[in-house]
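Entry 14. Ran structure prediction on the chain below.
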Amino acid sequence: MTASESPPGAADAETAEQGPPPVVELDNVEIVYDRHFLAVQGVSMAAEEGDIVALLGPNGAGKSTILKMISGIGLTERGEVSRGRIYYDGEDVTNRGANEMVSKGITHILEGRRTFEDLTVEENLRCGLYREGRRFNFSEEDYELAFEYFPQLEDILNLRAGYASGGEQQMLVIARALIHRPRLLLLDEPSLGLAPKLVRDIFETLVEINAQEDITMVIADQNAQRTLEIADYGYVMENGQIELHDPADVLAEREEIKEFYLGTSGEGSRYTDIRHYKIRKRWT
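Output, structure tokens:
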């Protein structure tokens, strides 16, 4: 064996030291619609096992597009990863369909509290068993996980979902996702249109779910303050690109985040009168 050669098993030992791959990872991803319209460019990000990852940014930044391409829903909307790769547990899943990603343990809660409005709350929850193929073979035990975190739903099981309040509908879609028993949960704007107290309650429940069920989460939301409070790591997007990223507690203390998203920057900030300029232009 020459000095430059590695001993047997050295590569395996090195891999072991590196630990398992992230649950989901994007490597320099570019996303286009209809093969021509560029929505996301050069995005690299990851969510480690058991983490809550915040994906922040204004409307149109590309947050929803990224979640949809991870879950495979984006393919149904004529989206496509045209460059770069998406990995799930180290496996290349770029441009895989939603049915395959669901079977791998990925559940996506879309923006806007997408319930089946004409079905009852119970029937909506039963839809969460679709992945297990038990839509017509279920028991009350299947709902225990949902009721553990959202006991309010047990009192409105026979109510049509369309008549539930906004907060109840948000609880319902999260509970329905839990019945899937996901490994990775993608949440798009879970705070949208909810009162501050409801937002606080739901985000606190997400923390409990993350800790107790060991579900990795990626949360795309414009409520930066609440999202960073519960997240382990955060990414900030603008115009289809990642402009900032840091551990969530570090990100929350950055002056540009305070100025743009938290409204807590110092009175002497030199950027008070030019909020409309991009973070990238102001802080590079």
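The mean pLDDT is 84. Will compare against last week's run tomorrow.
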